[in-house]
């Protein structure tokens, strides 16, 4: 809920940007040219990012309306209860209905009329009458949706009828909506928006846009055009949004300049009226969209009047406050954009930007945007006041934003932050809990072949304000999110937040983002967003659902999170169903909570389905993945069961919790010797054959212990039963040891590898690798000798006892391990034998990697020389092969 005038104003700032932004088609280079606007307005420009709000919008697409209700709705969604002047919500095509009992009652009364099915049957003049006699809530219920009624609603006849009505009343505009200008504008605005995405909509785009020019100009010349009331402000932003989406900005160029000038001379209208500020935002978005070669007529219109007006706003220090600095920043960006595309104005704009650098504090937001502007052509610019260098300024910002660097796991996890080590330590240990549950789920304990993300950097800003001011400047990334993981950079970025800024804690955000890292490193080959597996947002629900699900990890289980269920509690009848979840696209945050809890539902009741989804992705079998998703989507009984599951969660919401990890007492740990840990584990049933090593040195030393588990003999190879048996086994191991006098074991996390079933006397028993890790007291780091240590480690595994490791200047260290399967009867198929061989191979990789993850972070293995060996007398057979691993 928008609680005060200021926050309401900020919400509408976001709304007007969404409402009016649109763009002509551009090639890739032109998209890159426009990354400044993406950053300034909170729209991601990089296609290879993972984030809690990964947007897919680009500046070559028009953007539709986001209602005030949806602004309120998304305050409950992923990390969105924040100052929204830069939070740009990317709308789905559908327009949601307002919340609130009273509003819903009204909507129920008029619902039969406020639908596409009703309006599509109206004749053109009846359609105009309908617009004149219904409010915007009613109209917004159908104009933004593309469905079977859209072609009738947006027929050429209807659009011309609306045009005639608009032309008739434009000369008599009195500064109010008495003649229903807002309703008429809405049809043009939404019509051009939908026409972009659905060209089959029948109205003639070129004719309607050209026919709009004269009535828009007549409207803009009315004496009441610049009226300063709230209602007039709403009409103004509809005016500019329509001109923007119709791509006729040059036709209203004088109105753009006049509105900027009155905004500068009468600043109280921006302070006192959120809709007037909204209109200014609409003007900015029009300018910045159409200052581009795609709009040559608008470029030709730009003159000193516009530059002087923008300069006035950019240099007006009265706007340099938290609620209005966006005006200064966007004015500077607009000048930067003109500088870039119209060299004729570069000298004039350079003088303005030089004044900006002298006017605003060093490293303030306006200062940084001005640095961006003057260094567009080179790293350094020689100004009348001296030299300014982008690289030098970035280094200064980094030093201020990230004064502390903490290196964990022998440099494979590095945190850059202004926060103290005491604040970061719980986050590190939270990620260890996420890791353990992730590996139990995926059953593969070594990275995918050739994965390049062998380390991760975490940039944690000290506050939301720092994130918004510094993050775009340092990394060219948007801030309309709670955090972003960019796989190609091997980094994710987030900030410390207060409860007033976000319902999600920093720990929850890091847990979520870390799952994205793990999925890319251990399940899906290649970079995020690249490759056919990501086509058409196939994995959107999977990526975000898994991240939300595993964010609830503890050492022994994965818990439903109260913060997600609480939101579902208030969704009431507007819950998402399973088909909607598995086809969700980025653009709204609502699906996050449903996808996360759907994963938990599968984990609880359909674990084999969850396993199969993960395995198809691990095996790059897109067709099988799509088939599984289709089955899930079409299973109505599954959706019914899932909705019942949600009912039970909501019923017990007050018993749920959110993750909050405590740091072990690292200064008081009992031992720094993994041999001590090993002796204790070997006294247990599960750990009787455990082997332990020092996995990590440094401020957070870690031990790693591993061994093989065998399950009960059963009549069939039941994976779910075996998984549950092994999961309980390692949980019991944790419970048994967590109160041990050696207190290192009180913070131990365990995982397990792939389950394989061996046949014995027509029955089956499962086997799986387990690995447990936890804290060690400080120990002086050891410098390992290669390839000697590597060979020792490979030979200390279950299936690598005959390994040989060699090092050469050209190929580095290579370890070859001969592997042979057990003997199979003559009736066994090659596939049966290969499954066992592949399990041995995966186990070998996992054992080596888990011993010392930082040392073997670049482990890359393949199977070679696979041979079938047969006994000519008995017919028995087995497979042999060579595992070759580069380190």
UniProtKB/TrEMBL annotation:
Enzyme Commission designation: 3.4.24.3
Enzyme class, broadest EC rank: hydrolase
Protein's UniProt keywords contain Signal: yes
Primary location group: secreted
InterPro entries: Peptidase_M9_N_dom, Peptidase_M9A/M9B
UniProt catalytic activity: Digestion of native collagen in the triple helical region at Xaa-|-Gly bonds. With synthetic peptides, a preference is shown for Gly at P3 and P1', Pro and Ala at P2 and P2', and hydroxyproline, Ala or Arg at P3'
Region forming the signal peptide: 1-25
A GO biological-process term: proteolysis
Name the UniProt record assigns to this protein: microbial collagenase
